[in-house]
Every structure is written in structure tokens, then in C-alpha cells.
Amino acid sequence: MKEQNYKNHKRYLIGYHGITFTLLFILLVVSVHNLYVSLKNHYDVRTGIMFFIISVSMLLIFFYSRTFALKAQDRAIRAEENLRYFIISGKPMDIKITMSQLLALRFADDDELVELSEKAVEEGLSSD
Hints:
Blueprint: H1 14-40, H2 46-89, H3 99-105, H4 110-123
Helix pairs in contact: 1-2, 2-3, 2-4
């Protein structure tokens, strides 16, 4: 596994972010069209409703599964960085620090962590 740094810590996966989302979006569009045609032509709407519910459910699962995993990861990173800051400085990290600032501070050296974190809070520095 490659060493993680600030430039490569974000990942965009074509299979997940590109293809899966596109297919789910197409499924939603087709299911809405199917439901519309069923209602307009007085067909049995149960199939159209079923496909619509399935497509909306799959889109929600797509978004929430990623969100839940990222929130858990953010909590772990916050705990790790709070511990690291406490070991270095002997005091807890300022609670005003944002998650994006904290993610950027993960890649700071120990000798510059305290100064950078205080500067990030005081000046509202971005993660870049």
C-alpha cells in the first residue's frame, strides 16, 4: 500500500462514484418514466411503483452507506489527532477546529502541529 499523504488521501473510484451512481440515476429516470406511462395508459401501476421504490431505495443506500462510513472514519481521525495533540502539547485540542482543518493537520509534522492548529483556528485557514 502506498504511503498516504495530503495529495493522495482523497479517492475517486470510477466504479463506485462514476458507474454505480450513473446506473442508479438511470434506473431512477427509467422507473419514473415507467410509472408515468403506467398511470397515463391505465396499466397495472404496481410494477411501476415497485421499480420506483426500489430505485429510490438503492440511491438512498448508495449515499448513506458512504456517509456512515465517512462519519465513522472522521470520528476515529478526530480521536487520533486529539490524542496526538494532547501528547505533544499536554492540553486538549481546540474544539473550534473544523474537520477539514483536522484532516489537513494529520499530515503535519509533530513539531509544527500545535502552531498550525492554533493558526488554523485563529485565522480560519482552509485545509489547503
